[in-house]
Amino acid sequence: MPKMKTKKSASGRFSLTSSGKVKYKKMNLRHILTKRSPKRKRQLRAAGILSEADAKKVRKQMLPYG
């Protein structure tokens, strides 16, 4: 059976922690930042963790060797 291919767009967007959780960068921090409060911008800098239901799908289908 051939190797499974990694979805390259997913490999750029997601990474796995050592415990197997799926980490991603939060949206809304690219441009037009003047209308956002400093607190909101500070919270968006932190990495997000996918819910377990979504993480299972990402690990199985998009990052099979992650």
Plain-language structure description:
The protein has about 70 residues and is α+β, with helices and mostly antiparallel strands. The protein is about 40% helix and about 10% strand. The chain contains 3 helices and 3 strands. It has helices at about 10-15, 40-45, 50-60, and strands spanning about 15, 20-25, 50. A 3-stranded antiparallel sheet has the order 1-2-3.
Short overview:
With 66 residues, the protein is an alpha+beta fold. Helix content is 38%, strand content 12%.
How would a textbook summarize the main sheet? 3 strands, antiparallel
Principal-axis shape: elongated
Task: Give the H and E element order.
Answer: HEEHEH
Average pLDDT for all residues:
96
Q: Which blocks of ≥5 consecutive residues have pLDDT under 50?
A: none
Through-space gap between termini: 19 Å
Rg over C-alpha atoms, rounded to the nearest angstrom: 15 Å
**Total DSSP E strands:** 3
Spatial strand sequence of the major β-sheet: 1-2-3
What characteristics describe this protein?
single chain, 66 residues, alpha+beta, 3 strands
Helix-strand layout with pairing:
Blueprint: H1 8-13, E1 14-16, E2 22-24, H2 38-45, E3 48-49, H3 52-62
Antiparallel strand pairs: 1-2, 2-3
Keywords: Ribonucleoprotein, Ribosomal protein
GO biological process, one term: translation
GO molecular function, one term: structural constituent of ribosome
